[in-house]
């Protein structure tokens, strides 16, 4: 059904474009068609007992773009992988193997149409808002795939959705972007027993517990999501305001007691996705050679699980403000540095909140990324250090990329986590790993 | 006694702006050798060399439009394809396919080899610098004006440029690029002047040599030029992904 809707919308848009915007030269198909892709072999070895291979993934991307004219183009991309670690070891349960062993997915299927100051993109896509790297403060449109925590590239983390994305250039350097999607997919979380399984909410029930599955239909016109971004550039200040109406992409476990006399009541945990209204803003400014960036988002309607036994449904509302301030600057010796401070601030008391990674009313994180290049940028070391300030949990990810040729790169790296069990990074304290990746692009 | 001093001051007051105007006119004329039209597409190949290392070659397609706007698409090698730079006046973004969004960066950041982002994305010395004519000098037998260019704001690639412009046709010949500390960052020489566009001679080669390590150099070869009107969407950062 969704395919049919998409095809109909695409067809109507193509016919709406003025014929005079078509360029005959571009319709000579070999010149108008572009195909490219990449093939990667990703290896990871878990350092802690039991030290063992944790990833043996072969990953392929193939994407194509066909330009009907300068105003109309169609692009599609597919991604497939096979992770041989599930056959090479018996460390992971069958449900994880089913979930993560192999995948073939349509990552992009977009028809782009331009007409005057209007650009429309319809189809399966990633819509990325925000100015900072390695964070999701205002990157709210697409759900994320956290089956490998936040370690993959962000284009791999974002789950593409079927959406309509229109941009109007209202004036020079002033644009209004509107987004609508009936594809209400949620974040994809690792299954129980997976390498990067998240610590769940800290429930301590004496009664029997039944956890219902999170099986809400992922495609719904009634629960469709949408919003807008208004952006302006003036005197070097790049500012945007955003609003997005969506369901919380993470499940919130509501509780209810079901009497089972004469036995004790059963606690039923029902995952729901409460509606959120996200209001935010972004800002960047270049003060050569320094770049300053900031993002802020207020999630109105955000809810958290609570361990307060007096709370009826086990969930409390805490509207949440997320913000970050970052600065990119060069250091001596051709080293580029990016320093970023981010905070999550809950409106109200956080005493009994049961969600891991929420340190209290205020959760602060500090990130530093250093990058440089040697030998004409053929040897490129990078290190990312992120620390949770309140609980002193942290992640260090050094990486060394070697550019073998214009098409082939190799990289060795590590992901080291430290901290207490129920902190964002500390929950993976036993998952430290070294990685080796070879990528061929064509 | 004071009459000659007043006269001298008056003469200086009249002559100094005139010299500054003349200097800016020279820079403006020299800019024309690096800009074939108001709206055009230019293919650039950059060969970066370093002693005892195999040269690396990067290719770009540059879309330029009035108002200091340009979009630089990375077209080779394959590992860089999909990236692009967008310059809107003195503001610059890079689109990285791995990040999936445009990211603000400074003009002075290195693009490849000895080439800064601003060397490719912005070539408007008239708009970016105040010029002062400081003398005359021959460069490899070519009689040149020598100009000191000082950045109008901090948002440009270089804090200062020493610029040699041929006296006969005002083509750019040589430039030394300096950091705010006064450190020589690199030296550039312009050559291979051709009529890439009929009736409009252009410098089709710029060689940049590191200010300290002279064995490090990058050669920018400007290839095919197509003069045409470029749609506005090319200069909108929200379109960078779809233009990839």
Distance between the termini of chain A: 35 Å
- Report the order of strands and helices of chain A: HHEEEHHEEEHEEEEEEEEEEEEEEEEEE
Integer count of domains of chain B: 1
Query: What value does the average pLDDT of chain A take?
Result: 89
**SSE string of chain B:** HEEEEEEEEHHEEEEEEEH
CATH topology of chain B: outer membrane lipoprotein receptor (LolB), chain A
Low-confidence stretches of chain A: 1-7, 16-24
Helix content of chain B: 10-25%
Number of helices of chain B: 4
Multimeric state: heterodimer
Mean pLDDT level of chain B: 87
Strand order of the largest sheet of chain B: 6-5-4-3-2-1-15-14-13-12-11-10-9
- So, the CATH homologous superfamily of chain B? Lipoprotein localisation LolA/LolB/LppX
> What is the β-strand count of chain B?
15
How much of the polypeptide of chain A forms β-strand, as a percent range? Answer: over 45%
Which structural class do the helices and strands of chain A define? mainly beta
The dominant shape of chain B is: globular
Largest sheet of chain A: 18 strands, antiparallel, barrel
Biggest β-sheet description of chain B: 13 strands, antiparallel
Q: What features would you highlight for this structure?
A:
heterodimer, A: 442 residues, mainly beta, 18-stranded antiparallel beta barrel, three-stranded mixed sheet, 5 helices, 24 strands, globular, disordered N terminus, B: 244 residues, alpha+beta, outer membrane lipoprotein receptor (LolB), chain A, 13-stranded antiparallel sheet, two-stranded antiparallel sheet, 15 strands
Describe this structure in words.
The complex is a heterodimer of chains A (442) and B (244). By secondary structure, chain A is mainly beta. Chain A has 5 helices and 24 strands. Chain A has helices at 2-16, 29-32, 85-88, 94-100, 154-157; strands spanning 33-46, 52-67, 72-83, 102-115, 118-125, 147-150, 161-171, 174-181, 209-211, 225-234, 237-247, 252-260, 263-272, 275-287, 290-300, 303-305, 315-317, 320-331, 335-346, 362-371, 379-388, 393-403, 408-418, 433-441. Chain A has an 18-stranded antiparallel barrel. Mean pLDDT of chain A is 89; it is low at 1-7 and 16-24. Chain A has a domain at 1-106. The two termini of chain A are 35 Å apart. Chain B is built from 4 helices and 15 strands. Chain B has a 13-stranded antiparallel beta sheet. A two-stranded antiparallel sheet of chain B has the order 7-8. In chain B, a hairpin with a 5-residue loop joins strand 11 and strand 12. Chain B is globular, with a radius of gyration of 19 Å. Chain B starts with a helix and ends with a helix. The mean pLDDT of chain B is 87. Classes of the chains: A mainly beta (442), B alpha+beta (244). Chains A and B meet through strand 4, strand 14 and strand 15 of A and strand 6 of B.
